[in-house]
């Protein structure tokens, strides 16, 4: 079966997913594309033999669209996802599921009313081979009960439009989801420490930040977010258990020895770092749509991540430890 996909938002990652659906993933075809930049939608649609439509309503309502991929700006996600759920169409939504926890809950409620899972959220770390191996080791009990997780999320630079709250909402949201998934545990509180700020930042930004989380099971998690580290895109994660540790491998890169030095390149860009994860993520989404059984991170994970990032931003603002206040998970999402 070929899954016919309609795409909402053809910017950087939307266009990349369209390319992926067309040339990498099997069993899918992009039928329709929309973007508030109509010229962009037309150009991207044209490049893959799809048609450009005026808006998300037309894409979701199109008779030849079986499933929807949302890659517009975060603030536009909720309405498109709600419309897809109302139409009973499976929907893959890039992170964040919505920019407020209230909107995430509206999606959770709508999906439960529909009666089966339709929504997958773009937390692609769960599809990265290194993270998957970490999860296998932890679930097998090879390091005993996990006690601590140390993470770092470093970008070379960010534009002036990036502000301090984005360190949680845009950047650490990936670690937040990855840690909940790795530990099969929920994050119950957040605290933020603010080291001396790097000189290589725009004036308004608190960079770096150290986020401290506690889980319901009592594990402690630290996440260093440093988005102007200058040297590259660097993702680190190590879980420490009662009898051992497991560490995320660095992506394989050639070790070059020359002029009296040995060096291994550091990737510069998140797209490059997680290419395989995105490919597997979208392939598994297409397979799940074809099988009629949504899987992967869902709207509950989107809601939990929103609550945790909100608490983290409040912790940064107040200097206090802030409870995440996540509701009890409905059996529907067990
Ligand atoms: P972008 O700005 O390059 O692209 C967004 C596109 O959506 C633009 O072309 C814009 O015109 C269009 N758009 C905005 N509102 C729209 C609406 N209501 N209807 C139709 N089109 C609309 O942004 P980028 O980097 O592609 O990010 C898109 C989303 O993907 C964001 O939510 C971002 O957080 C997420 N993202 C996820 C990543 C991941 O690793 N999973 C990586 C990068 C982005
Ligand atoms: C970006 O928005 C993403 O989602 C990338 O995956 C992330 O690693 C990067 O730091 C963010 O800016």
Automatic annotation (TrEMBL):
<feature type="domain" description="Gfo/Idh/MocA-like oxidoreductase N-terminal">
    <location>
        <begin position="3"/>
        <end position="123"/>
    </location>
</feature>
<dbReference type="InterPro" id="IPR050424">
    <property type="entry name" value="Gfo-Idh-MocA_inositol_DH"/>
</dbReference>
<dbReference type="Pfam" id="PF02894">
    <property type="entry name" value="GFO_IDH_MocA_C"/>
</dbReference>
<protein>
    <recommendedName>
        <fullName>Inositol 2-dehydrogenase</fullName>
        <ecNumber>1.1.1.18</ecNumber>
    </recommendedName>
</protein>
<dbReference type="Pfam" id="PF01408">
    <property type="entry name" value="GFO_IDH_MocA"/>
</dbReference>
<comment type="similarity">
    <text>Belongs to the Gfo/Idh/MocA family.</text>
</comment>
<comment type="subunit">
    <text>Homotetramer.</text>
</comment>
<comment type="function">
    <text>Involved in the oxidation of myo-inositol (MI) to 2-keto-myo-inositol (2KMI or 2-inosose).</text>
</comment>
<feature type="domain" description="Gfo/Idh/MocA-like oxidoreductase C-terminal">
    <location>
        <begin position="135"/>
        <end position="322"/>
    </location>
</feature>
<dbReference type="InterPro" id="IPR000683">
    <property type="entry name" value="Gfo/Idh/MocA-like_OxRdtase_N"/>
</dbReference>
<dbReference type="InterPro" id="IPR004104">
    <property type="entry name" value="Gfo/Idh/MocA-like_OxRdtase_C"/>
</dbReference>
<keyword id="KW-0560">Oxidoreductase</keyword>
<keyword id="KW-0520">NAD</keyword>
<dbReference type="InterPro" id="IPR023794">
    <property type="entry name" value="MI/DCI_dehydrogenase"/>
</dbReference>
<dbReference type="InterPro" id="IPR036291">
    <property type="entry name" value="NAD(P)-bd_dom_sf"/>
</dbReference>
């Amino acid at each position: 079966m070929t899954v016919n996909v309609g795409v909402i938002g053809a910017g950087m990652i939307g266009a990349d997913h369209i390319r992926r659906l067309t040339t990498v993933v099997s069993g899918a075809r992009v039928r329709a594309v929309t973007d508030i930049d109509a010229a962009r939608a037309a150009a991207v649609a044209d490049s893959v033999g799809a048609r450009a439509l005026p808006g998300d309503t037309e894409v979701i309502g199109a008779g030849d669209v079986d499933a929807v991929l949302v890659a517009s700006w975060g603030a536009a996600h909720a309405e498109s996802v709600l419309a897809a759920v109302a139409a009973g169409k499976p929907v893959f939504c890039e992170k964040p599921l919505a920019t407020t926890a209230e909107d995430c809950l509206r999606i959770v409620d709508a999906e439960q009313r529909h009666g089966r899972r339709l929504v997958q959220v773009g937390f692609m770390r769960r599809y990265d081979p290194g993270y998957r191996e970490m999860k296998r080791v932890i679930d097998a009990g090879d390091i005993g009960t996990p006690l601590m997780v140390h993470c770092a999320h470093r970008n070379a630079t960010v534009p002036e439009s990036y502000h301090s709250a984005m360190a949680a909402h845009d950047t650490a949201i990936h670690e937040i989801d990855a840690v909940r998934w790795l530990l099969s545990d929920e994050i119950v509180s957040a605290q933020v420490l603010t080291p001396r700020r790097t000189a290589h930042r725009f004036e308004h930004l608190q960079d770096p930040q150290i986020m401290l989380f506690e889980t319901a099971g009592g594990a402690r998690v630290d996440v260093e977010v440093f988005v102007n580290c200058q040297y590259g895109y660097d993702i680190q994660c190590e879980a420490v258990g009662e009898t051992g540790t497991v560490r995320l491998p660095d992506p394989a890169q050639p070790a070059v020895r020359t002029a009296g030095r040995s060096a291994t390149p550091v990737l510069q860009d998140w797209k490059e770092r997680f290419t395989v994860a995105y490919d597997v993520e979208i392939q598994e989404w297409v397979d799940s749509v074809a099988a009629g059984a949504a899987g992967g991170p869902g709207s509950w994970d989107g809601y939990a991540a929103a609550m945790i990032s909100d608490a983290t931003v409040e912790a940064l603002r107040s200097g206090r430890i802030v409870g995440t206040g996540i509701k009890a998970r409905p059996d529907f999402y067990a």
